[in-house]
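Much of what follows relies on a compact textual record of a protein's fold. A complete example follows; check for yourself that the lines match position by position.
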Amino acid sequence: MSSKPRVGLFVTCLVDLMRPSVGFAAVTLLEQSGCAVFVPEAQTCCGQPAWNGGADKDAAALARAVVDAFETFDYVVVPSGSCGGMIKLHYVEALRDDPANLPRAKALAAKTHELVSFLVNVRGMKATAAHCEARACYHTSCSSLREMKVKDEPRQLLNTVAGLQLSELKEPEVCCGFGGLFSVKYPGISERMADDKIADIRSTGAELLVGPDLGCLLHLAGRMERQGVPVKVRHIAEVLADMHDPALGEP
């Protein structure tokens, strides 16, 4: 029997529907770190849109489904601080009135990690063999930073990518304006926030934007494509796994 830690990869809806290469990159990185990776077919949405929209019963039902699908693994790893934060922090809120499932949600939360922080802090990854000839900047997404407490780990690994020149944004911790339902409810404010972030990106001279959350990246990639801004966008997992699929926003 394998002694490798068993990792359940929570792929996320956006990765599954919009950018499957992020999921494949996550599998590659986790296997490189010595894990046995599993992607449960029963997994579905983490429930965050329902939770943020006030549909608490629907969010609780989705939380139970995720707990059922993932509780047998040693770790749950998510290539998104947003979905990771929902599982780690908000499942215990969504199931607070469910005495049968609340302990299970707490147990799942305790072993849930954002992908890059898991690689660095749990698996001890210090470098990558990836190569990417580009001047890049890194967008620290709100959920990764504020909910999953991930800040330095992505930069540690990106700084080991051969050929990558990493420049820091002037305001790396400022929201890009996506915020899930926020961008739907307040499109004008969301677009202005995206424009401010794009101006910050352009000020670095970067030709590549890297980030940990696909929602933020799709938001910024779409806005830049409509404005004709020549900056490519890729998820950090794709860069670290040395995957050279077309960047977001490219034809």
About this structure: The two ends are 45 Å apart (CA to CA).
